[in-house]
Amino acid sequence: MGNTIKDNLILAVETSSRIGSVAIAAGGEVLAEATFSVPLRHSAEIFTAIRDLLDRFGRRPREVEQVHISAGPGSFTGLRIAATFAKTMHLANAARIVAVDTLDVIAANVIDLADEDTYPASDPDLQAIGHERVAAIVDAKRGQFFIAVYERRTPGGQQVAAGCGWVKVGSDSLMSAEQFLTEFVLEEKPIWLLGDGLLYYKDKFQADGIRFFDERYWSPRAGKVHLLGRQMALKGQFADPVTLTPNYLRRPDVKIKTF
Question: Among candidates 213, 31, 237, 247, which has minimal Cα distance to 106?
Fold first, then answer.
């Protein structure tokens, strides 16, 4: 392929979770993706990672036409980093912004693979493709989780990932593990879970009717931010850089000092 870029230059940023990443794309093709070296190093590594990707393909920041970000729900600090970066790129060279739902990004780790030939036949999670429900789980602290549920349905509804027929059931929700199990678990219709909210709390979601994807699918990735962001951009679904605010789903804690 070389360094020739035939379509608009796009940067995708994922800093909503513990493991940050960035990707560079030409139109619909992801050219490269870089994962930060250690967890929770978003502010320290984002600019270096982006610079290295641009240098690798002989490009400059002024050539970036779109910035796709994972806009939450997720880490308050991480979401602010992504939003600030996107606004900076807009001010610098009028880059257009696409704000992608983080739970959709996580779900896309498996939903889009479920309809593609690239899913390895030897993968132990292959059996999950035949099922019809997936839930993305993100730790919201204080015993609560950001959760979204997806179902495979007859095409015609809103599609949130590359997999045809997958739709989100309701809006992103803030709930406890117990609330989720009560509302969504059916023994006769298993639901498959992923998301790094399971990293420390997988045991809370253990129940009949619950299945878990392998841990390598749990983290949101910049490549998937681009996958979904590209679909939105083609539909003209760009964010207003002036009013762009991360989807915190709940306000961060504000601690007032007393003297």
Answer: 213
Give the SS3 label for residue 76.
helix
Cα–Cα distance, 191 to 176 (Å, whole number): 17
Residue 6 has pLDDT above 80, yes or no: no
| The residue type at 250 | R
Q: Which tens digit of pLDDT belongs to each residue from 66-105?
A: 999 999 999 999 999 999 999 999 999 999 999 999 999 9
What are the pLDDT digits (tens) for 112-157?
655 444 334 445 444 445 567 999 999 999 999 999 999 987 554 4
Q: Check residue 113 and give its pLDDT.
A: 59
- 190 CB-contact burial (10 Å; exposed 0-12 / middle 13-18 / buried 19+): middle
Overall pTM > 0.70: yes
What is d(CA 166, CA 154) in angstroms, rounded to the nearest whole number?
8
Cis previous bond, 124, omega within 30:
no
What are the structural domains of the chain?
Answer: 9-101+220-234 (3.30.420.40), 103-217 (3.30.420.40)
Q: Any idea which residue has 């980093």 for tokens? A: 81
Handedness of CA 223, 158, 236, 78 (dihedral sign): negative
Q: What is the SS3 string spanning 154-175? A: CECECCCCCCCCEEEEEEEEEE
Contact 138, 107 (CB under 8 A): no
- Per residue, the 3-state secondary structure of 133-148, as one string, reads EEEEEEEEECCEEEEE
End-to-end CA, the chain: 63
